[in-house]
Amino acid sequence: MKQLMFDDKDAFLAKLRELLAAGTKPEQIAVCTPVPVHEAMVLLQVPESKLRWFTFVGAFTGLLSGFGLTIYTVWSWPLITGGKPLVSLPPFTIIAFELTILFGAVLSLLGFMFLSRLPAVKQIVTPVETGNQYAIFVEEDR
Amino acid sequence: MKRFPLIAACALLVALVQLDKSGTHLLPVLVGMALAMGGVLVVAAAELSNAKWIVPVKRPLLAVAPVLFVFPLLVKIAPYPWLAHENAWLRRDFFVARDVVALLVVAIVGNLFRRASLAESAAKGKWAVAYILTFAVVKTLIAMDWVMSFDYPWVSTMFPVLYMVECFCAGLALLGLICFARRKSDGVLYDTATLLFGFALFWGGLFFAQYLTIWYGNIPEEVGFYTRRFAIRGGKCLFATNAILLFGIPFTLFLIHRARQNVRVVTVVSLMILAGLLVSQLFHIRPYVHIHLGLLVIQLVIMLGVIAATISIAKDGSKCK
Prior knowledge:
The complex is a heterodimer.
Chain A (H helix, E strand, L loop, with lengths): L1 E5 L2 H13 L7 E4 L5 H6 L7 H26 L12 H27 L18 E5 L4
Antiparallel strand pairs in A: 1-3, 2-3
Helix pairs in contact in A: 3-4
Chain B lengths: L2 H17 L6 H23 L6 H8 L29 H27 L5 H24 L11 H24 L4 H31 L2 H12 L3 H20 L8 H23 L7 H28 L1
Helix pairs in contact in B: 1-11, 2-4, 2-5, 2-6, 2-10, 2-11, 3-11, 4-5, 5-6, 6-7, 6-10, 7-9, 9-10
């Protein structure tokens, strides 16, 4: 496997374009960058991660649970506070927001563990430590 | 010669604002100020965080800095209820004097930062810090004097922060429009959209926190801020439109990854944010100011035209080099 290291993002992207223009298939190339480089993801036609669906389902469930919990509790034990209506959406929004974040975060973590096949760490560990450099790994033709 | 029409437009705007007694000028001037201050603010924040994505758009964004010198000339007393009984702080002469000085200081510091940033001087970080601090103080003063004083003795420490965040959103919206003019879907566009998403959420949080504390406390001297505005025809509609334009639409659309990479979507959302800024100011001043629609349109067109022309001249200048 050929390994190319760059300090500069532009040089890294230029090399990546050059490799693809020279006929290297995107599936033969793996990159490792210190920050997300969206241009590289577009060039390598990386499919969008399924993780976001875990986050979305978790967050939406949290939102419904937050409103459901608060509305159910005031209906089951009606107690008027400060002259406000029983179902008062402004304060309930806070609970719904908190549960949206909580459920979304928990399901994201579980989704990440599921998609990366943890505890098998091979899926998330790069072949070499690249630090703050931009790395391209090219699988040679056999 | 290119700058002559620009100076003439600024002179016309100053004349229109100074002759206007209705207070309509507050809308275009506050929106223009948010764009000019926000544009420089975005670059200052990016410089401080050593962000490299800002480099391709730094010049057009910083081009708005000279416009800051127009705002001290646009200080004008609106029909504030406190004019009938002035006090030590809310007094015509002191009001004008402190706001002119404050806006002049932010203009000077902003332009010194612009010069240091474009020259890639070692002092650019210090000027960025100086600009951000000056901006925070001046924007607080302007929000309290120009808008919050309509409701005196109502006070809110959250109110100026909302104006500061709106300024950052305006700067990012301006960046979104610059991305459209560049016709490139690169990292700048994606980062702008991601920041707009984050700041829409931040603005939404502050807006909601301001409403919730007043709603929950239900104290007569506080709830008046909302009840006065909701009592006017269309007041609730303005409130909802404001929340939708500055929070609902950017937040919902930018949840979608592909939307952040689409220059048309970012442009439309940027325009909606600018419309949201106008609605926000309208919601705040409407109970006290009789808006002259014709005058508003003329002042707004000149204000936005001056900002657009300043950026366009800077872009042409960079091409020549």
